[in-house]
Write a structure and sequence with these properties.
Helix content is about 75%, strand content about 0%. The chain is mainly α. It has one domain. Helix 1 (about 1-25) packs antiparallel against helix 2. The radius of gyration is 15 Å and the shape is elongated. It starts with a helix and ends with a helix.
Amino acid sequence: MNRILFIAVNILTGIFVLINSIVGYGISGMGEDSTHNIAILGLIVVWAVGLALQVSKRIWVLGFVVTFIPVVFILYLYFTATNM
């Protein structure tokens, strides 16, 4: 049961980061003279590195923490934007 929950959390965080990164990349280029900010797609890379670190049994906890860094960052952006 614990393994199924672990896999479900990874899938949900991956979908959350992927969708928000793609939407953020699309929205970042909507201004008149603006270009797309490719740095937003770096969140997907950070999530993927965390997922790769989870494969090793010795450092899976570090990988789990790294996987949540983009999620916490996106949630921080949402809460900051709503409180402005």
